[in-house]
UniProtKB/TrEMBL annotation:
InterPro entries: DNA_mismatch_repair_MutS_C (IPR000432), MutS (IPR045076), P-loop_NTPase (IPR027417). GO terms for molecular function: ATP binding; ATP-dependent DNA damage sensor activity; mismatched DNA binding. Keywords: ATP-binding, DNA-binding, Membrane, Nucleotide-binding, Transmembrane, Transmembrane helix. GO terms for biological process: mismatch repair. This is DNA mismatch repair protein MutS. It comes from the Bacteria. SMART domains: MUTSac (SM00534). PANTHER family: DNA MISMATCH REPAIR PROTEIN, DNA MISMATCH REPAIR PROTEIN MUTS FAMILY MEMBER.
Length: 542
């Protein structure tokens, strides 16, 4: 036993700062988030933005929690930007202690691991879902239970009561097994609630953790008041195939004779229904504790990170040595924004989209877990919207272009608010023709750039960069095309891209000479034409 405890402690210490070796069931992980109300949230990150930023992969990288409760709580925390950033930044002293005091951290982790079973995913159902209600004829359960007890007492005095009692037992037998399906719905969450409450009671003894919710003691005490009744579920969950068969049969007979299961089940559910707030408070205390350990582990394992500077609503973003956390050995970049938005040019695979995602991810983690993947990162408190990964909606007969139109229309609607937003766009309107793409793109990007909103957009259209040079800072990514290779440095550079290498890349990949020659000739003719013909970029109604 001592050896096992030491082994567990060694594993916890060795895993600190490392990726979790586990499978991720996002249906279960997201249960708490999907059903939780967020009336005071600054922003709930949309499914669309999550898809654009590869949120599930990001979560698997960030998650270092020990419990299923902590995992669900962390997921919710990353999806919800709170109104008050000071709440996010208020736990730095505890995070420092968790990083610097391994023995202290491991003692907490050992408690949290008691909630690592899959059944813990169902705890939120106890305070988020409607509980089963007793049927209208439930009064008959009480009558039958009392009648069974009374008949059993009278049998020694009135032997004929044996026949009456046998009849009642048959009815009770049917009702007992009919109720089993109701009981099974709570065999997972209620025993885990008992464990969670016990873990919370132990952790709450620590002075530093007590600061997370100084009033938690009353919630722990209230849940303990129904502990004895809930022990039925603990017994039911723990016995099973490993228990002594004779003892199990005896227990089951007692429950059948007196209909104990339905009586206790609906009694417990009635009491739990009045303690939803207390259960959620204990759940949140456990979840926040585990989330902080996860953030501490994340920071410990990074090459570098910073705590963000979240300022007012000025149109300013500053980042130094910022990087994408999911890209191994990612090249870092610097960016400074003051009063303008950012337009990126560059060829495919040069790093434009990854850089836009880098900014989006850091904007979210800055405002949710007070951690950025950079040496320095500052930004205004802002909402995050994106149109990076667009696909056809074949089920609703919507083309790629129409899907993009709807997504960007939502951004335009959001831009009327004075609340600062950051818009992340990749290759705007690439599903339509060049003239209309450039003209519509210019008008929309100018509109989104109003007020204190900041836009990060990539494009292949050099004309768009020329049209927006007074409103957007121009940057580019480029590659070096050698005789038989293409090298990317993934470094952000000032100005718009001047070199075109698409045809050269075709040549490197041994496209037929006649195709290369024709492409070069057509490209030269189009360049000459563009010098003499100024396209009409106005958008007229029809």
């Amino acid at each position: 036993m001592v050896f096992n405890r030491k082994k567990e402690e060694e594993n916890l210490q060795q895993s600190f700062g490392k990726l979790k070796d586990a499978t991720f069931d996002f249906d279960s992980i997201g249960k708490y988030f999907r059903k939780k109300q967020h009336p005071d949230a600054f922003q709930i990150i949309s499914d669309k933005t999550c898809d654009d930023l590869d949120f599930e992969e990001l979560f698997m990288f960030l998650d270092r929690t020990q419990s299923k409760v902590g995992q669900q709580y962390l997921y919710n925390k990353l999806r919800v930007i709170p109104e008050n950033h000071q709440e996010v930044a208020s736990h730095e002293a505890l995070l420092t202690r968790l990083i610097n005091e391994p023995a202290y951290r491991v003692a907490i982790q050992k408690q949290l691991k008691k909630l690592d079973k899959r059944e813990s995913y169902y705890i939120p159902a106890l305070f988020q879902d409607e509980h089963l209600q007793p049927p209208k004829w439930f009064f008959l359960i009480r009558i039958l239970s009392f009648s069974s007890l009374l008949s059993l007492v009278l049998i020694p005095f009135l032997p004929q009561m044996l026949f009456f009692w046998s009849f009642i037992i048959l009815i009770n037998f049917a009702l007992h097994y009919r109720n089993k399906r109701n009981l099974y719905a709570y065999l997972a969450p209620i025993p885990q609630l008992l464990i969670m409450n016990s873990v919370a009671r132990e952790l709450f003894k620590d002075h530093s953790l007590k600061k997370l919710n100084p009033n938690l003691a009353s919630s722990i005490k209230d849940i303990n008041k129904v502990r004895n009744r809930m022990s039925l579920f603990k017994l039911e969950a723990n016995l099973g195939g490993d228990a002594v068969a004779i003892f199990w049969a005896f227990v089951d007979i007692i429950k059948i004779v007196f209909l104990l299961e339905p009586l206790l089940l609906f009694g417990v559910l009635k009491q739990l229904d009045t303690k939803r707030k207390q259960i959620e408070e204990v759940y949140s205390f456990i979840g926040l504790t585990d989330t902080l350990i996860s953030v501490a582990s994340l920071r410990h394992g990074l090459t570098h990170y910073c705590q963000p500077e979240v300022h007012g609503s000025d149109k300013k973003i500053s980042a130094r040595e910022v990087y994408h956390p999911l890209i191994p050995e990612c090249v870092t970049n610097n960016i400074e924004i003051n009063g303008k938005s950012i337009l990126l040019t560059g060829s495919n695979m040069s790093g434009k989209t990854s850089f836009i995602r880098t900014i989006g991810i850091n904007a979210i983690t800055a405002q949710t877990i007070n951690t950025c993947f950079a040496r320095q990162f500052s930004l205004p408190k802002m909402r995050v919207f994106s149109a990076i990964r667009i696909s056809d909606d074949l089920m609703n007969d919507r083309s790629y272009y129409f899907q993009e139109v709807l997504t960007i229309k939502e951004m335009i609607d959001k831009s009327h608010s004075e609340t600062p937003n950051i818009y992340l766009l990749d290759e705007i309107f690439k599903g339509t023709n060049t003239i209309e793409r450039i003209s519509a793109g210019k008008a929309i990007l100018s509109s989104l750039n109003q007020n204190n909103h900041i836009v990060f957009v990539s494009t292949h259209d050099i004309e768009l960069a020329d049209l927006l040079k007074d409103e957007y800072e121009l940057f580019h990514f480029s590659e070096i095309v050698n005789h038989q290779s293409i090298d990317f440095d993934f470094k952000l550079k000032d100005g718009k891209l001047k070199n075109r290498n698409a045809i050269r890349i075709l040549q490197i990949n041994e496209y037929p000479d006649e195709i290369i020659k024709e492409a070069i000739k057509i490209s030269a003719d189009l360049d000459k034409a563009s010098l003499h013909v100024k396209p009409n970029l106005s958008i007229s109604g029809q």
